[in-house]
Amino acid sequence: MPKLRRLAGHEVVAILQGFGFQQASQRGSHVKLVREVAGARQVLTVPLHTELDSGTLRAIFRQASRFIAEQDLRPHFYS
After folding, report:
1. Count of domains in the chain?
2. What residues contact 40, with CB distance under 8 A and at least 6 apart?
3. 48 lies in which domain range?
4. Domain holding 58: CATH number?
5. Disulfide-capable partner of 16 in 21, 51, 71, 72 (CB 3.0 to 4.6 Å)?
6. Is 19 exposed, middle or buried (0-12, 13-18, 19+ CB in 10 A)?
7. CA 48 vs CA 14, 17, 36, 60, 71: distances in Å
8. How far is Cα 46 from Cα 31, in angstroms, rounded to an integer?
9. How far apart are CA 47 and CA 27, in angstroms?
């Protein structure tokens, strides 16, 4: 079974930017990423912490899976 990687917030932001998300705003240590697809606005929030907890990382993965195919995301989040 693949293991969840330990990622920093800026690494997750870079991964999601590779899928077309752009930074819309930042409040404190949280960045809001947005992309427009077929007239629908897709929004994800990522904390810019040095190392994200595994539960937080899993939640971001699950939320991003609503917009991006899971098989495309999995190599970035799991080893």
Report:
1. 1
2. none
3. 9-77
4. 3.30.920.30
5. 21
6. middle
7. 11, 14, 23, 12, 25
8. 5
9. 10
How large is the average pLDDT for residues 35-48?
Answer: 95
> Residue 1: inside a domain, yes or no?
no
Structure tokens at 11: 């690494």
The answer to whether residue 42 is domain-embedded is yes
Does the pLDDT value for residue 75 go beyond 80? yes
Chain position carrying tokens 């937080």: 56
In-domain check, residue 64: yes
- Judge if pTM exceeds 0.85: yes
